[in-house]
Amino acid sequence: MSRVLAIAVLMLTGLCSAAAASEGEGGGFINLDKSLIIQAVNFGLLLLVLWRFLYRPLLGKMNERTEAIKKSLDEAQAARAEAQRERESHAAKIQAAHLEAQAIREAALKEAAEEQRRLVEAARAEAARLVEGAKAELAQDVRRARQDLRREVSDLAITVAERLVRKSLHDDDHRRIVEDEITRLEGVR
C-alpha cells in the first residue's frame, strides 16, 4: 500500500508543478488549473479512504482466509497421518489376531492329538484289563469245571464202587477203593 501512496504523492506533486508551470499558458489539450488540483486532491483522499476502509480490511480478510486454509491443510495432513497410524495399528492387530488364531489352532490340534493318544492308551488298558478278566474268569471256570468233574467222577466212582461192593466187597474195601480213586484223579490234574 505504501507503494500506491508513494505513486499518488508523486503524481500530485507532478500535477502541482505542471499546474504552476502552465498558469501562464493558455490552451492545450489538458488545462492545468485549480480544478485539476482539486480533482487530484479528491482522488488522493479517495485513495486514502479506500486504503483505510477497504484495502486494509480486505487484506486482513485475505490473510485470515489464508491462515484458515493453512490451518485446514495442517489439520487434513494431521488427520491423514492419524488415519495412516490407525491403519497400521489395525493391520498390526489383524496380524496379531492371525498369529493368535494360528497358535490356538496349533494348541487345539496338539491337545486333540494328546487326547487321542490318551484315549487309545485307555482303550488298550481297558482291553488288557478285559482280557485279563476274561482269562481269570476262564481259569476260574476251568477250576470249577474240574471240581464239578471230580465230584461227578467221585459220585460215579462211588456209585460203581457201591455196586461192586455190594456184589463182593465189604465196607472197608469200598472206602479204600474210593480213596485210591480220588488220589489217582488228583494225580491226573
Architecture overview:
With 189 residues, this protein is mainly α. It has a domain at 138-188. It has three helices and no strands. The radius of gyration is 67 Å and the shape is rod-shaped.
Could you give the topology of this structure?
Elements: H1 2-21, H2 34-168, H3 171-188
Helix pairs in contact: 1-2, 2-3
Task: Provide the descriptors you would attach to this structure in a database record.
189 residues, mainly alpha, 3 helices, rod-shaped
Brief rundown of the structure:
The chain is mainly alpha-helical. It has helices at 2-21, 34-168, 171-188. It is rod-shaped and about 195 Å long.
- What's the helix count? 3
What is the radius of gyration computed over CA atoms, rounded to a whole number of angstroms?
A: 67 Å
Oligomer status: single chain
Number of strands: 0
Q: What is the mean pLDDT?
A: 83
The share of residues in extended strands comes to under 5%
What is the 3D shape?
Answer: rod-shaped
Major beta-sheet overview: none
- Estimate the helix proportion, in percent: over 70%
C-alpha termini separation? 138 Å
Low-confidence stretches: none
Order of helices and strands: HHH
Class by SSE composition: mainly alpha
